[in-house]
């Protein structure tokens, strides 16, 4: 539970502000004083910080329960992803695509004997999301910021879906992570110096996918239509370069704006659909 403020709403607002300010400071400091490769650790650190703010604990090992497993998925993903980034960068994509499968089996273990097809479907969806975000070679500095921005939008869009799926803690976790991501990326909008590498892929994006697994596979109360629409967040940005060519947008900032904007549209629609589907039963 969040520990700031007198009411849950005040506590969440204070935590969101703190997360964004700390992320801006850390990202700015690393931009001017640290090697670009270390910026790969910023988004995993933001997700771990969000986890600690929500649950106020480091789970015992071996973890019991899906929520506790998520913490170690992030920690192990950070170590493995960053190590692969340093030692064998071409292998980053292979490791990243394997992560959603391993996480789905690990978190969805209680469902394997009951509805294994759900775990298989979740793993396939996770791999597809990972591939769509990582697809293509990083040819321009803003490409890594684009990937990070889409991850932030995914977290923001999934937050209310998690809340409606009876997981208020995942709702808070996703909001805090999104705030951290936006804070990290804010100072990289112009002249970016940011790396979305192995750790960001396996720990930040992979960790967010794992949070979704806890809602979809364990609580099993998420809105499937809203989730399907939210998945378009990683599909529409694939066409951002075509849109930019149509409008003759060649500068980095307009390209970044179009890319993230195409991710925001389905996220907003997914939230609206979830709200309409639940109507008056939307949690207060």
Care to describe what's here?
It is a single chain. Helix 1 packs parallel to helix 8 and helix 7 runs parallel beside helix 9. The chain has 12 helices and no strands. The protein is mainly alpha-helical and 284 residues long. It is globular and about 50 Å long. The mean pLDDT is 85.
Q: Could you tell me the strand content as a percent range?
A: under 5%
The number of strands is: 0
Q: Could you name the ranges where pLDDT drops below 50 across 5 or more consecutive residues?
A: none
Tell me the helix content.
over 70%
How is the quaternary structure best described? Answer: single chain
H and E order: HHHHHHHHHHHH
Shape: globular
Number of helices: 12
| Mean pLDDT figure | 85
User: Structural class of the helix and strand makeup?
Assistant: mainly alpha
Instruction: Give Rg in angstroms.
Output: 18 Å
Give the termini distance in whole angstroms: 17 Å
